[in-house]
Amino acid sequence: MATGSALRFGAQTDEVTSLLRIVNLVRTEEATTRPEIGRLTGLGRGVVTQRVDQAIEMGFLEDGEFGRSSGGRAPRTLRFRSEQAHIIVCALGALHVRVGIAALDGDILDQTHQDWDIARGPAETLDTVMAMIDELLTHHGEVPVWAVVVGVPGPVDFESGRPVAPPIMPGWNGFDVRRRFEQRFDAPVWVDNDVNLLALSERARRDTDDVDLIYCKVGSGIGAGLLSHGRIHRGANGAAGDIGHVRVRDSETPCRCGKVGCLEAVAGGWALVREAEDAIAAGATGALARASAAGDTPTPDRIARAAEDGDALSISLVQRSARVVGESIAALVNMFNPGVIVMGGAIAAAGELFLAEVRQRVYELSLPLATRDLSIVNSMNDEREPLRGGAELAREQLFDATFPRWFADGRPTIEGVRAAS
């Protein structure tokens, strides 16, 4: 990227401020021609021309096609060069790893997936992730990496990028996830709870960023991502939304976290697998039992699919999970008052069978005012959801939170991003 006349920062000048704004107006497509930029910024025609030329020289913008004429000569459009760099997203689940490459506009260019047990620990897991990334990058030329996002299935201290006492991630507590990626790519790295990435993916699908939303993932474990006015609420220690470990009334079931009676131990995918295996051992019949006898042991995905296909045992397990999850969500609704609840994850993939039970419990147990305008829906169940959410997180951090710090250098730096946090 050309930076010959790039501006160097002491105090942020009016020139820098206007240049930043112009790049972001074009990037977000709020303005795509020079006349539109002038109307929105109040800058004179000559100043707009100068700033746009600087942005083009720096490599952020380029001229596009001619736009629609309003009576005179048609203005040439401008476009943000989203292809100038890549964002890498790594979505680590309890039993899988998904890696993707995105352009700076959030478009997922490529992805790969592998079954993986997160309990194998950080060293082996990150070795596998790096190999998956390297394989993807071989197909995309010498394009610089500007950001890396890593989603993990547990609480994260967002400032340090370290998991905090994650119940299903032995060996990960306090581990510096960012370091390997920073050393490999010399780019800023953000680490977050995987459900927060899913919530950001839902935000990106909507017409407005200003949304109050809960994304509840019911997979092997259970967690929730909370969006308040479009911003992730992480809490003081990264534990906001960790509803999988709230206590279920009258339950003494041991949980993987070491406590008893947790929601996850009663209604999570791993709990349903345990109950399915016990029921089959006790003589339960049906499609799930026949599949188990043939060697396809129950998993959260198989239970959800069998429930959709009418298997009585799976239906009972999914419905009971939904009722208990709905009770916990009702408490969140009363406290958080979201406009939308999105249900996702392997168990929620049972569709309306699961969703109907959740809706019933939420509306029964929540305040009428809190549910008056509430919408409870299933996620798109798109395997790219966490990748899109990770790209959204990177774009938010690069262009909303830290852009003024690294703009003059032409690309984000680890030091510049950290100085802004």
Automatic annotation (TrEMBL):
Gene3D superfamilies per the UniProt record, alphabetical: 3.30.420.40, Winged helix-like DNA-binding domain superfamily/Winged helix DNA-binding domain
Protein name as it appears in the record: ROK family protein
A Pfam family reported for this protein in Swiss-Prot or TrEMBL: ROK
Family of the protein in this entry: Belongs to the ROK (NagC/XylR) family.
Protein origin, superkingdom: Bacteria
SUPFAM superfamilies, sorted: Actin-like ATPase domain, Winged helix' DNA-binding domain
PROSITE patterns: ROK
